[in-house]
Amino acid sequence: MSDKELPKQEISEHLQELRLRLFYSFLAVAIAFILLFPFSKKILLFLQKPLPKSLVGKLIFLSPGDALIVSIKVTLLAALILSSPFWIYQFWKYVEPALYEHEKKLIIPSFFITLVLFLLGVSFSYFVVLPFSLKFL
To answer: For residue 90, which of 31, 1, 25, 19 has the smallest C-alpha distance?
Structure first.
């Protein structure tokens, strides 16, 4: 291969870079969590839409803290999903310097294919599999 030699870094430089990328990723998730928390009830209602009409009633919380815990979990999941492009980008920027050019050319298209297939899988499970499985239960 005619690829140029990759720059060498000490282990402490790698760890410092990893620490910085992780900090940015957690910060993005925290900001998304803060912005989404007021909408946690709407997010929960959206997640309940596939429930079949035959199920009468609503969610029941068995202890005083259950409603808050469910709101926090739903908001955290939504924050992780919403901020995922940013933390995936941070992961890419951490790994990218270690790759040769021909490796980068293979990874970038496969990333977009993976993203499309993931979104198709999530949509299929939400609109097809989940309603069918809830009717079965």
So the answer is: 25
